[in-house]
Automatic annotation (TrEMBL):
<dbReference type="InterPro" id="IPR021295">
    <property type="entry name" value="DUF2867"/>
</dbReference>
<dbReference type="Pfam" id="PF11066">
    <property type="entry name" value="DUF2867"/>
</dbReference>
<protein>
    <recommendedName>
        <fullName>DUF2867 domain-containing protein</fullName>
    </recommendedName>
</protein>
Length: 165
């Protein structure tokens, strides 16, 4: 098995499997991990907490461009969910022993990010699945623009999780 994050089919056991149908963006990436004694919460914090500077720059650009168009900025999302558990600005929506679902609903699109730990005879892997449903033209344009960056961000996020042992 490769040590790099690679694309796979979305996992059928995921808590967000109902989001797969009609998603305008749906992808899954997997990376092997060695984290038998690490909780899914700790894995999610490794992956999404304390993002690198280049990710913060991308989010600042996204906020600067999309905020004036009526899309909630990362800061607005964080403040809107200050009463809920969150990792960075991503609200935690659902959690099981081996999966955490983060996401947000907005006027232009709704998204879900699943971080799922899967164990089998070969060891453990962490799968990141993103599902997005758009509501209007702005949402569709947004997905078109961010798709190339999204794939890089997800792969880098998984690799960060793998490196932090």
């Amino acid at each position: 098995m490769t040590l790099l994050a690679r694309p796979i089919d979305p996992p059928p056991e995921s808590l967000i499997r109902d989001w797969y149908a009609n998603a305008q963006l749906l992808d899954s990436f997997v990376v092997p991990i060695d984290a038998a004694d690490v909780s899914i919460n700790d894995l999610a914090v490794r992956a999404l907490g304390s993002p690198p500077v280049w990710f913060k720059v991308l989010i600042a650009i996204r906020d600067g461009v999309m905020g004036p168009l009526g899309v909630r900025t990362s800061g607005e999302v964080r403040r809107a969910h200050s009463d809920k558990a969150h990792i960075d600005f991503f609200p935690v929506l659902e959690q099981s022993a081996d999966e955490m679902v983060l996401g947000e609903n907005d006027s232009h699109l709704d998204f879900r990010l699943s971080l799922l730990r899967r164990r089998d005879e070969r060891g453990e892997v962490l799968i990141a699945t993103t599902a997005v449903h758009t509501h209007n033209r702005l949402g569709r344009i947004y997905i078109l623009l961010i798709r190339p960056f999204h794939k890089l961000v997800v792969r880098a996020t998984l690799m960060r999780c793998r490196r932090q042992r």
